[in-house]
Amino acid sequence: VIEQVLTGAVAGGTCIVFAGLGEIVAERSGVINLGTEGSMLCGALAAYAVGIETGNPWIGVLAGLVAGALLTTIHAALVLHRGANQIAVGLVVSFFGIGVTALFGQSYVGQGVVPLETWEVPGLSSLPFVGSVLFQHDPLTYLSFIAVGALTWMIWRTRAGLIL
Amino acid sequence: VSAVIANRWVRLVVRWVVLVASVLIIFSAFLLAKGADVAAVLESMWDTALGTGDSVGETLIRSTPILLAALAAAVPARAGLFNLGGEGQLLMGAIGAFVVANQLDGGSPGWVTLMLMALGGAVVAGAWAAIPALLKVLTKTNEAISSLLLNYIAGLVVTWLVFEPWKDPASLGQAYSRELEGPERFPVIWGERVHAGIFVAVLAAVALWLVLGRSTWGFKLRVLGGNPSAARRAGLSVGARSIGAMVVGGAMAGLGGMIEVAGTEGRLRPDLLAGVGFIGFLASWLAKHDPLRAIGAAFLLGAIAVGGSGLKITAGLSGAAVNILMALVLFAVLGWGTPPAREEST
Fold first, then answer.
1. Which of A33, A98, A101, A109 best probes binding to B when mutated, by most B CB atoms within 10 angstroms?
2. How deeply is B51 buried, as exposed, middle or buried, from its count of CB atoms within 10 A (0-12, 13-18, 19+)?
3. How close is the nearest chain B Cα to the Cα of A33, in Å?
4. Which one of A100, B65, B244, B302 has the fewest CB atoms closer than 10 angstroms to its CB?
């Protein structure tokens, strides 16, 4: 049971890891971005819609990235260029995301999308316990492992990270 | 001189006309992109929100808790604090009102019952709001985040109450509490649903406007919000005042929760007032934390929220799509409502 719970936690936690990483970048620069929820919703919708239209989940993933970034651009533009309050604008971005996904997402309800294939890491996935918990997931979960390391390196070891 | 003043007024009017027009144009563009009949949708939204007497009543009912949630954000904002916990404080107010109603058990005359329920709601929600304030003062925890997270806990408390101890025995598997009745309910004053609780909300706004604008307490809050270190050097006890501001704010939201269960809803449900705390927070920003303007802001956002049902009825669109319009209004006002004030961009 513990094995199943932990496997589920790693799979389910993936999206929270990515959201958390995004927020870390923002917080490092002293910005509280409450629009993360909106970015995630719009990213999910974009990935889903594009995934269905193209039949290729990876193009969907790319679309999700772009959509999330676009939404955060609204936040940045209003806060930095118009001097608006970051907490208030962040909350509004979340509402905006809810609205946009409600409007455009409705027609996709119930449709299936081609899922990313589970990819078992050769060798490691057959390890007892650790193998099934850590190494039998879809590629984005592995990407989240890598992203945590990469971001840590970026924040502490690169010029861009230290400037944040 | 009069030419200069006239010029300023013209610019102000032009600014707002452009803002309102852009908001409507962008919202219409979204509807067009979805392939909806824009004119029909907008007309239907207008009809459901403001077009008839009944729809105005519905908007008034919806605006009432939004106004009190706005006041819950406005008072701490004067002291430079962010209260994102309106959502949970509304629920705690509803719980407090129910506790009192259950204790009295219909044994007191109407207005005494309602006053004690309001007091109960305000006290419980005020205490709930004191948690992030205490954390802020004692451990320097960011009050925006802690008050936000307390919303989830308050929601779970309500869910537990309506699934277990307060579950209506006659509810047949549905999770909600018993219905408040008789002296525990605000009298209906107009149509079938508009109740007297709306006066309480407006009165609270006016009272807060007087207190914040005219009393020394209000003045000191503003000093604190303007420059905390100056306030400290001037001998103000910053901690006590921060806590006071949050507690008064929480009490306002608590009153809102009490009015909702004693007025419109009658029952405690898991999704009671979902989203209202956040809409209220934004109404406070729309009103620049002025209690009187908050009345207008709450009415506007309440009307937009009610208009969402219109979206659903005519165009078959999701009612939540109305959040786009709400967000556009707020983007416009927060971003372009006043000329950018660089020194405030913290």
1. A98
2. middle
3. 11
4. B244
- Cβ A102–B321 below 8 Å, yes or no? yes
Cβ–Cβ contact B144 with A under 8 A = yes
**In this structure, what token pair is assigned to residue A79?**
């806060």
Q: Helix-strand-coil percent breakdown of chain A, rounded to 5? A: 75, 0, 20
Q: How far apart are CA B335 and CA A102, in angstroms?
A: 24
Quick check: B345 and A80 CB within 8 A?
yes
CA closest to A105 among chain B residues: B318
Say what the alpha-carbon torsion angle A83, A88, A89, A92 is, to the nearest 10 degrees.
Answer: -160
**How far apart (Å, rounded) are the C-alpha atoms in residues B244 and B129?**
10
User: Closest approach of chain B CAs to the CA of A37, in angstroms?
Assistant: 13
Q: What is the pLDDT along chain B (346 residues), one digit of tens a residue?
A: 677 777 888 888 888 888 889 999 999 998 888 888 888 888 888 888 888 888 899 999 999 999 999 999 999 999 989 999 999 999 999 999 999 998 887 677 768 889 999 999 999 999 999 999 999 989 988 899 999 999 999 999 999 998 888 888 887 778 888 888 888 888 888 888 888 889 999 999 999 999 998 888 888 888 888 888 888 888 778 888 889 999 999 999 999 999 999 998 888 988 888 889 999 999 999 999 999 999 999 999 999 999 888 787 777 788 788 899 999 999 988 888 765 444 443 3
